[in-house]
Task: structure prediction
Amino acid sequence: MAFSNFTVNVVSFNEAEGVDWTQAHPSVTLIITPNAGYEINATNFSPKNPLPPFVQSVTFTQSGFNIECVILYIEPSEMPNNDVLIALCITGYASLIGVSVAGIVNYYTTFASTGVPSSTAPYSGTGLISSTSEITNLTVIATTGYYFPVLPTASLVVGSLTDYSIVPTLINDAAGNLIQVNFAVNYTFPNYSVTGDRIVVTANAVEIYNPTVGISAYSINTSLIGVGGETRTMTVFGSSGSVFTITMDGGDLVTNITMGVNGSYSFPIVFPAVTTNTTYSILLSGDLVSPFAQTNPFTIQQRVNTEVTFSVSFPDGIATQSSVVKSYLPFQSPPVGDAAEVINFGWNITPMVSSNLTLIRQPIIDDWSNLDPVSNGGTAAYPIAEINLQDPPASGTIAVSGNMDAYGGINMETVLDLTNIIVVQSYTELTLCYAGTEADLCCGTSESRTVFAEGNVANLASVTGLLYTTRDLDVEAQDGFYSDDISITCTTPPV
Result:
């Protein structure tokens, strides 16, 4: 029987008319089972009174995820000449199973406070599956006398975008200057707990303009630049008539610019694609106010792609395979279907000597090392390996598929360990002369036979075990006399 988010089975039995059925069935046990995604507790269940006829008591006991409902009959209970339906009314409910989410927030701010003691702060939340709630509220407040000329941002860089909703609330001063932003981080809980998500908050405040003579401030996004480069806008603030120059790594960006009456000057800075991590040093000079409140010169970092290396570790006797490398922007999730998101490559299984291969089992994800994003720098990789051996199993292939959910901030390597998954049994093929007797081998007519020996042997003298007729080493060679002496011709007696 189905109830609200749980089910109860039906128990029935046959009994003859006039018989006290409590002799054979003093009680019955009904099993209450929660629906998927729900849980039940025996303390939340009770029978409704009055109890139906024939029922003395009803008890509820927890049994793992289920509840046992034991119905004790009144003794005696005589079976009438018709079917008896005992309809028990119960009260109880099932609750949604709670899940959690946990991650970190990185703050990149200039002249702004965040309410946390450092630039990195954890966040977490719990809720019911499919429910949505606010799990944290992130605040950036401009330093007194400063404001945000560019709207601060809070961006999810590691995690599922479909589960998050980040809503900003803007607060302005009496003059209309943006001085505070509150980011409400709302989360819709999936049917599993999540760790390792990452939110980046960027907020750069500048001094509120006043008639102070000179160049008073600048504004530019100083967060990390990706390997592909980008163009960012820098804005300089100051009084009309002030003159300034801006250089980057010693080269002029703008030279002897005279500030206009609007008190600001903006221009683009092009950061090119790079192949190595790069630091740019930018210097503002000229009619600067003293003391100048901001860092000058200041730096901006550009990061190359994070490389994720897939390698395989074979048991002894199999040639080492080349590693496969995938790369993408650090702390980013590649689009679905992108080359950086799809894992699709293969390795050959090539024994270094003639061998029989035995596949113990197919690899599982736990056979790959270093896949925990918490310890590997934030990389979320999900490789799947399938091994196919040839027939006979002297070689094979490994097909690797899967996906990359996110790239962390450092290069990492994951290794598929096949040491206990593939067994290598090497063998050597020998062509020998054979005869039934020693005299026939030496002085009579012998025949050429191909046999197999275990291991990698050079000749008959180095064989320590038996000879076999098959490369599987399962059928012993015929008893007799064998030789690889070059003086013996297998089909013609020696002279």
Notes: The chain has a mean pLDDT of 89. The domain at 213-302 is CATH 2.20.130.20 (S-adenosyl-L-methionine-dependent methyltransferases). Residues 438-443 form the longest helix (6 residues).
